[in-house]
Amino acid sequence: MARRFETLAADCLSGRRIAVTGAGTGLGRAIALRLAGLGATVGGMGRREALLRDTGAMAPAGRFVPLPCDIRDYEAAAGRLGDFAEGGLDGLVNNAGGQFYAEAADISAGGFAAVVDLNLTALFALTRAMRPFLARKGGSVVNLSIVGAERGALGLAHAVAARSGAAGLSKALALEWGPDAIRINSLAVGTVATDTFLAASTAEQRAELARQTPIPRLVGAGEVAELTAFLLSDAAEMITGQTLRIDGGAFLAAPVDMRPTRQKVLHE
C-alpha cells in the first residue's frame, strides 16, 4: 500500500505568507509544494531561477512566488525576501544548506568556513533580517538540520559544527523573540533520498543507512514536509525552542562512515 503522509486539514495555512529557502529542488521543493497545497502563498528562494519556476509550475496557481537569490549574499537575500514579506511574514523555513564529505584532517580552513557560512551564518543573517516581518504576524521559523548534528557523523565534522550551531541559535532566538510570539524550532532530519543524495552516495551506503535505522528505510520527503507544515500551523503555537527528530530512530544507531566519499553535496 502506498504511504500517505498528508494528515493536516485542507487549507489550514490559507492566507499565510511563508518563505522557503532552497525551494528549487529536493526537500525544499517538497516543503514548498506542501505548504502551497495547504493554502499558503510561498516565497521560494534559490540560486537557480529555472528550477524555482519548475517548482512554481507544480504548485497551485498563484501560490508560489519565485525569489531567485543566493542566501550567502546577505543583503541581497534580505532585500528580496523583504519585498515578499512587506505586509508581514507568517513563516520562514531555512532549508538551504549543504556540505561535502571529507575526513576532518582534510578539510581546509576555507572549506570549513564555507560550510559554516552556508549552514549557519547565512541562516542567521536572513532570520535576523526577517524578525520585524515575523513579529507582525507572530510567525514561525523552522530550521532544517541533520541527525548527525546531535549524534556526530564520520566525514561531516564541518557540517556537524555548523548545524549544531544552528540548533543552539534556534533555542537562543526562541528565548529572545518569544515575547513577539515568534516561534523557532529545528528539525533534525534523517537521510532523505533526494536526487542530490542519490548522486553522491553508493547503493551500499544507502543500504547500510537503512539497515542501521530501527525503522529500516530512508525518510520520505513528504514526511518532512508534513511535519514542517505542522510546526508552521496554529496547532504548534506552544512549541518553540525545540529540536524534533524525524529519522526512524537513526539517532539511536551508530553513524555510517561517509569519509571515503569526496563528492560535493550542496543542495538548495
Q: What is the straight-line distance between the termini?
A: 31 Å
Count of helix runs = 9
> Oligomerization state of this entry?
single chain
Overall geometric form: globular
Strand order in the largest sheet: 3-2-1-4-6-7-8
Give the amount of beta strand, in percent. Answer: 15-25%
Structural class: alpha/beta
| Mean pLDDT across residues | 91
Query: Quick one: how many beta strands?
Result: 9
Biggest sheet architecture: 7 strands, parallel
State Rg: 17 Å
Instruction: Please mark out the parts with pLDDT under 50 across 5 or more consecutive residues, or reply none.
Output: 261-268
Explain briefly what this protein structure is.
With 268 residues, the chain is of the alpha/beta class.
Q: Can you describe what's shown?
A:
The structure is a single chain. With 268 residues, the chain is an alpha/beta fold. 43% of the residues lie in helices and 17% in strands. It contains 9 helices and 9 strands. It has a 7-stranded parallel sheet, sandwiched between helices. Strands 5-9 form a two-stranded antiparallel sheet. α2 (49-58) links the parallel β2 and β3. The relative contact order is 0.17.
Q: Which features would summarize this protein structure in a list?
A:
disordered C terminus, 43% helix, two-stranded antiparallel ribbon, 268 residues, seven-stranded parallel β-sheet, alpha/beta
